[in-house]
Amino acid sequence: CLAFDNTSQIVITGSDDYVIKVWSLKEYSLMKTYFIHKNVITDISIDPTNNYFASSSHDFTIGFFSLINGTL
């Protein structure tokens, strides 16, 4: 799954390898990688202010992340 921020400068991907990646489309580079889920990532959603995003997984967990400082 993937989600674009409101400015279309950041894309966040989640996959069946359980990894979430935050990409800069402006610089074509990987900004951050997260390994918090233990099963397939099913959805990524970015809040309207572009400050946070959330992920869900088949491991029955939800992760909340800051796009400002990269913390979980």
Task: Describe the fold and architecture.
With 72 residues, this protein is mostly beta strands. Helix content is 0%, strand content 50%. It is built from no helices and 7 strands. The strands form 2 sheets. The chain has a 4-stranded antiparallel beta sheet, with no helix packed on it. The radius of gyration is 11 Å and the shape is globular. The mean pLDDT is 96.
Helix content: under 10%
Distance between the termini: 19 Å
Number of helices: 0
Give the strand content. Answer: over 45%
**What's the rounded overall pLDDT mean?**
96
Number of strands: 7
SS-derived structural category: mainly beta
What's the main sheet like? 4 strands, antiparallel
Describe the strand arrangement of the main beta sheet, using strand numbers. 1-2-3-4
Characterize the quaternary organization of these chains: single chain
H-E string? EEEEEEE
What's the gyration radius in Å? Answer: 11 Å
Which term fits the overall shape? globular
- Low-confidence region ranges: none
